[in-house]
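re: ur question from the group chat, yeah i did fold both. here u go
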Amino acid sequence: MVTSPGAYWVAVDVNGCMASDTIAIGQSAFPMVNLMSDTIL
């Protein structure tokens, strides 16, 4: 489970055949949402 930004990698060896991969996870701020009050027309 990813809990913080950073580079995460995995390496696998199956019967002598190796593979690896890396992914970079970033963090963005939550968008600011402003909901106006309901209006009846």
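okk and heres the other one u asked abt
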Amino acid sequence: MNHLSLRNQPAQTAAAKARTFPSTPNPDDAARRRADKNVRLPLLALLLGAGLLVGASLPAADGITNIRASQRPGTNLVDIRYDLGTINTEGLIVAVAVSTNGGLAYDLPATHFTGDVGFGVTAGTNKWVVWDAVRDWPDGFSTNVFFRITASDVAQGMALIPAGSFTMGNCMDPGEGDGDELPLHSVDVSAFYMDRYEVTKALWDEVYQWATNHGYSFEYGAQGKAANHPAHSITWYDAVKWCNARSEKEGRVPAYYTSAAQTAVYRTWQINVQNDWVKWTNGYRLPTEAEWEKAARGGVAGHRFPWSDTDKIQHSRANYYSTYSTSEYVYDSSPTPGYHPMFFNGVEPYSSPVGYFAANGYGLYDMAGNMWEWCWDWYSSGYYRGSPRRGPANNGAVAGARHCG
């Protein structure tokens, strides 16, 4: 039922744990290290390409300083520049919010930003963000446009997955695996962060307890063999609601809503959340199929598993059911057939503690074996023939369906 992009044999219990992504915290959360700056932009007939009169630079503050902006003559593009100071070598999460009423509310649903925005923005001067205003604000006009830029640290336990394109699909023998893993195609994915570990039963329970006391309901919840083992047997709906609860618990803006208006947070019942009901750059969320596979590959291409020194698998590398004795999979060379002897104790599921095996090149653990993992996309046997070539942070939506292998 749940998804594992790499087609090795996982332990025989489906997991729906949500490796999730953080985004911009609540700007009122002073406990997080962040800078919050506003720039007033009297916008003169944006759609006609008139110029922007930029207010004076704001006083210096820790993090973000020297914000300035201008509209490109004859276009609907707005250039926003700023300086960022941080000692965090992995970078910060930078977000831009837009107000069209003089800063009373930053409620314009603006998402079409490119450049030095999003995850992994490092220190430097003259950072550059481009806003394609007409895509977020068609027919818009205001003389009181404000921008707010926030920069925040990454949540602990996250690994940066850098932006870039990768080849998606079964890159080995075309006769190997299933037809729904082909054709090979290039996908451009924006940078994002992912949990280094599968969501443990302890973390699930912590968020679950908070959620059920704050208006959330879950149909089934989750199981787990031990506190440091992955949570499993979770429905997609409960996983999505849990992501929202984790966001709200930490003071972040949730990702999932009950309609395209994106006003009512998804907290109850089983709702088929659609692509345009998602704030893709906010809160914790499930990875798309492409994001998951890019992350699983660990920065290397042309290999079957998350490691690059061999294209074979053994119990020394992952917790899975080995079929070496039957030669069902030629790449399975484990000297110990069947379930992993370390975890085959007669009590199902035969899961292993998170992080038991070595991480991949991005610092992610258990991207092969242990438990299956939920993704966002719907499943379709022809998904790879028409799946989007750009990730959600680039185009604001993901076409197709929720993909579970």
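fwiw on the second one: Helices lie at 133-136, 201-212, 236-249, 289-297, 383-386, 392-395. The chain has two domains: 1-22+155-405, 34-152. idk if thats what u expected
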